[in-house]
Design goal:
Blueprint lengths: L2 H22 L9 H16 L6 H18 L2 H7 L3 H11 L5 H22 L9 H24 L6 H20 L5 H17 L13 H18 L7 H34 L2
Helix pairs in contact: 3-4, 3-5, 3-11, 5-6, 5-11, 6-7, 6-11, 7-9, 7-11, 8-9, 9-10, 10-11
Main location: membrane
Keywords: Membrane, Transmembrane, Transmembrane helix
Family: Belongs to the TMEM86 family.
């Protein structure tokens, strides 16, 4: 048997194992807790990223890692090469996990396009260190479009706001909004964006196993997005070029890449589960 034949057999076995694990996430046992289900979903998602038979996983890791290095070293050209690829790679992962209706796929694609547009707007304007409120507002507007699209898909998939999650996120949105407005009334658009993101996170964290085990990833996606944007606000006040500033930059990318991946794949999983009639 030739080396190429052996390699193909091995790749097919690995690919089969990943597909079976993703398929197994469509069912769960009554004894499993939400935390157990979420941890299994996260483990499967991470394992899938390293599946060489699906290049979008390694591409996502490479784009994220390259952006982290660029931020740590303040090397702009590498960031411009890698950062715009993070969300497209995550979107490809979400779409290739299984079939979606045309409407669901369109909403997911709009989300990916809007997030990528926001990335480019912010990246070309000085990145996380930018003091330009106009550019921040433009970037927030692009992300806002994405949040509305993915939130609409969550609602289509059966997610509904729960009282506790809504109350907690309402407090967060109110606190951030008051802080931003205390710095100036021209921060009103950013305060509005904070409210929109908190609303999306409240909906995402309202997920439960009735939306499908793989959709539990949304419980991590929403808070990760909130943390990422909070770090951006902190980063703007850090001294340019300092170790603190670079560490915050890397933290923003870490949490953002995680949020984008889990938001897209978790919402796609919820949509598939809702469409399965189970």
């Amino acid at each position: 048997m030739s080396d190429s034949t052996v390699a193909k057999i091995k790749n097919n076995k690995v690919k089969g194992k990943i597909k079976n694990k993703i398929k197994n996430l469509t069912t769960t046992t009554p004894q499993a807790t939400f935390a157990d289900t979420l941890m299994q979903a996260l483990a499967t998602r991470v394992e899938g990223l390293m599946d060489a038979s699906r290049p979008e996983g390694p591409a996502f890791l490479a784009a994220t890692g390259g952006t982290e290095i660029a931020k740590a070293l303040e090397f702009g050209p590498l960031e411009k090469l890698c950062k715009p690829l993070i969300v497209p790679a995550a979107l490809t992962i979400a779409l290739r996990d299984g079939s979606l209706s045309a409407t669901d796929a369109a909403l997911l694609s709009v989300t990916g396009a809007a997030y990528t547009t926001g990335d480019v707007i912010l990246m070309l304007g000085g990145g996380h260190a930018s003091r330009s409120k106009g550019r921040l507002v433009a970037g927030a507007a692009a992300f806002g479009v994405g949040h509305l699209a993915v939130g609409s898909l969550m609602l289509r998939s059966g997610l509904r706001f729960k009282p506790l999650q809504s109350a907690v996120h309402g407090v967060i949105a109110g606190g951030v909004g008051m802080m931003l407005l205390s710095e100036g009334k021209d921060n009103a658009p950013l305060a509005g964006y904070a409210g929109l993101l908190a609303t999306l996170s409240a909906l995402a964290t309202s997920v439960d196993r009735s939306h499908g085990p793989a959709a539990t990833l949304l419980a991590v996606a929403g808070p990760s997005f909130l943390v990422s944007d909070a770090l951006i606000l902190v980063r703007r006040k850090a001294e340019a070029g300092s170790l603190k500033a670079r560490a915050l930059d890397v933290g923003v990318i870490d949490t953002y890449a995680l949020a984008a991946l889990l938001m897209l794949t978790g919402t796609a999983a919820a949509a598939r589960f809702a469409g399965s009639g189970t």
